[in-house]
Amino acid sequence: MVSLLLPVIYLAFISLGLPDSVLGAAWPSMYGELGAALSWAGVVSMIVSLGTIVSALCSERLTLRLGPGGVTAVSVLLTAVALLGFSLSGQFWQLCLWAVPYGLGAGSVDAALNNYVALHYESRHMSWLHCMWGLGASAGPVIMGRALAGGSWQGGYRTIALLQFALTAVLLLSLPLWKRPQANVEGAEFKPHPIPELLRRPGVPQVLVCFFCYCALESTAGMWAASYCTLVRGIDAGTAARWASLFYVGITVGRGVSGFLTMKVNDQNMIRLGQALIAAGTVLILLPTGQGTLFAGLITVGLGCAPIYPSIIHETPLNFGREVSMSMTGLQMATAYVGTCLVPPLFGLLAQYVTPALYPWALAVILVLMFVMAESLHRKTALRRRAMQP
């Protein structure tokens, strides 16, 4: 039954990624029609992120009650309804209203699925799982780009909503395949752990800052890529929407390759490899040598992002213990979404009131902080990791 379940989990992560990149791709065409300012995309992003923070913090109790399969099915259904609402919105406040259920749906499913795979599957499956997220995130701007070519961003959202409804049906049929979270995994007893207790564990503050930085970097890179291409490099909106997908293409390809690399390279070194690639991609974006280097830079930053998130999540039981992995995953997801919530809107203000040319410099600053915290995390948790490794 596990072999039948794995493709369902992969489909669920395609669903999770589909809408994540669409707002950034469509926003250059949306904001004028909605009577919004350029920076207001950050407001919608913030509302979505607040919803994900709340649902991620509640994910442990929801998973213990409904099971990971039930949480996933309900969350995808909620997301589908929200995206259909996006497609019907004609004013900015309506977009904000529908962002609430979208955020609530995204947080719980992310935490539940990540913890389930970290406990039940090898590291390569975590990378390939997030490769499926990248596949969805790469497809989102393509779907939206085609909709924009026909003159309607609403049509793009409608198409993605219909895909989410179809996946909800698949998830409901798959419920008998899921293991209940109450079942022990190698003796681990799952129960809620208070946040103050978790924060006292060595390495927890560092891993939370890592997650904050990673999602701040990924969401800012993805959301503002199209605007940077249009406003700074002079690329037309339709082409920019397609170019924004290059970042997610890089993530997708990188995670597919990472799944094979993890058979030889441990999670810690996979994180370092990703950070080095992000640095190289940021330099390429900065170079004033034409669209070729911009093209390569967006892909390279995506390639660098590829191994970081799944590797940090997969090593959670190793760093902090299997008995607290469910609590830690929810807390990590919530902190990650704080980065998604705060940083893209802040960069939106910088883009509007200073210049969108700061895009690659913002990525560089976030990367440096993430690197420092990741190295500190592994120093703090080295003793436990050595004891747990075979």
From TrEMBL:
Keyword Membrane applies: yes
Transmembrane segments: 34-58, 70-93, 99-119, 131-149, 155-175, 207-226, 246-263, 270-288, 294-313, 334-353, 359-378
Membrane topology per record: Multi-pass membrane protein
InterPro entries per the UniProt record, alphabetical: MFS (IPR011701), MFS_dom (IPR020846), MFS_trans_sf (IPR036259), MFS_Transporter (IPR051788)
GO MF annotation, one: transmembrane transporter activity
Pfam families in the record: MFS_1
Domain of life: Bacteria
Intracellular or extracellular location(s): Cell membrane
GO CC annotation, single: plasma membrane
Coiled-coil parts of chain: none
Lipid metabolism in keyword set: no
Ranges of residues in domain Major facilitator superfamily (MFS) profile: 5-382
Major site of localization recorded for this protein: membrane
Keywords of this entry: Membrane, Transmembrane, Transmembrane helix, Transport
Family named by the database record: Belongs to the major facilitator superfamily.
Protein name per the record: MFS transporter
